[in-house]
Design brief:
Layout lengths: L4 H37 L2 H20 L5 H16 L3
Helix pairs in contact: 1-2, 1-3, 2-3
Length: 87
Amino acid sequence: MANIKSQKKRALTNAKKNLQNTSDRSRLKTSIKKVMTLVEAGNKEEAVKAYNECNALLDRASSHNLKHKNYVAREKSRLQKAINAMN
């Protein structure tokens, strides 16, 4: 543990931010999986609704530097392509 007051505070804020980032990443992965599950099940209306929610989470992840912008663009494209391929 650090001896300097500012470093003690930095350690606490880093731990808090790490917890938040982990939670956000997990939510994003779950959202992506949900869209793909709905696509595989053939439920287009629900898949589109889930895609819109996932899209917002992807944008947030990009703006908060959780995920790289190219990753976000690739995932959006992949999900949209899967939805468009549905009958």
